[in-house]
Design a protein that fits this description.
The strands form four sheets. Strands 7-10-13-16-19-22-24-25 form an eight-stranded mixed β-sheet, with helices on one face. It is α/β, with parallel strands linked by helices and 218 residues long. 18% of the residues lie in helices and 30% in strands. It starts with a helix and ends with a strand. It has two domains: 95 residues, 3-Layer(aba) Sandwich (Rossmann fold), CATH 3.40.50; 111 residues, Hexapeptide repeat proteins (UDP N-Acetylglucosamine Acyltransferase, domain 1), CATH 2.160.10.10. The protein contains four helices and 25 strands. A hairpin with a 2-residue loop joins strand 3 and strand 4. It binds acetyl coenzyme *A.
Length: 218
């Protein structure tokens, strides 16, 4: 599905899986994009967040099903956990909702995977593919012809030049820059403020300017 298919078509209400800081951001984006949030779900959850109830995950699924809620967004900042919970949520029969902030700019031909979130002020340029469960966070940018793998996270203020590929579940830490034509493998963590000027293998931690591989991903 492209941005042209998903934009301006809010449907709700939506169950938000997660109740932490990223869930607050996701709820803000979902609301700004026109959705209604039914509840947050997290194991052992109670209380409320932004005026909606926080429910225990198992109990919450039962309650929301009874209320006819069929759509969900998984709002967990940890990439591996987000992938795992997304599989569970799909197994429970929910449809995944993607949301693009109205203050983000996403080109019409950008492919947007299920459950992806594009946060306020982000820019995603032409020819780019965002996989499933991706986060393009606050004021980040992905320039032309990018390819962002499933459950990757482009953290706030990170900038990818043209033709950059990022593998599944990789995190590009806050304020990272990546030069054109660069490939970053899957399950990589790039440290905050790094400048990536060479390809990075999968399952490594790299940081610095220029970013160098320092250790295996934990
Ligand atoms: C909305 C949001 O909050 S989105 C959140 C996005 N998340 C991020 O941006 C976090 C990115 N994570 C980082 O930058 C982390 O510091 C990592 C992953 C690079 C390193 O973490 P660890 O593997 O635990 O390394 P550790 O903290 O032990 O640091 C090892 C050394 O590298 C240095 N170091 C760590 N991160 C960086 C960095 N980004 N740039 C330069 N040096 C760094 C440390 O100071 C330390 O140096 P020392 O050995 O001289 O004391």
């Amino acid at each position: 599905m492209t941005r042209g298919d998903t934009a301006d078509r809010p449907v709700g209400p939506v169950a938000v899986f997660g109740a932490g800081g990223h869930a607050s951001v996701a709820m803000d984006v979902l609301t700004a994009a026109g959705y209604t949030v039914a509840a947050c779900l997290t194991p052992g959850g109670s209380g409320e967040k932004r005026g909606v109830p926080i429910l225990d995950e198992v109990e919450g699924i039962r309650i929301l099903r009874a209320q006819g809620v069929r759509r969900a967004h998984v709002a967990l900042g940890d990439n591996v956990l987000r992938e795992r919970v997304t599989a569970m949520v799909q197994g429970e029969g929910f449809d995944l909702v993607s949301a693009i902030s109205p203050t983000a700019s996403v080109a019409d031909d950008v492919e947007v995977g299920a459950g992806t979130l594009v946060v306020h002020g982000a820019v995603v340029n032409v020819g780019t593919r965002l996989g499933a469960g991706v986060i393009v966070n606050t004021l980040a940018s992905v320039d032309h012809d990018g390819d962002i793998g499933d459950f990757a996270h482009i953290a706030p203020g990170t900038h990818l030049a043209g033709n950059v590929t990022v593998g599944a579940r990789s995190l590009l830490g806050v304020g990272t820059s990546v030069i054109p034509e660069t490939t970053i493998g899957h399950d990589v963590v790039v440290g905050a403020g790094s400048v990536v000027v060479t390809h990075l293998d999968s399952t490594v931690r790299a940081w610095g300017n220029p970013a160098r591989t320092r250790k295996a991903a934990s």
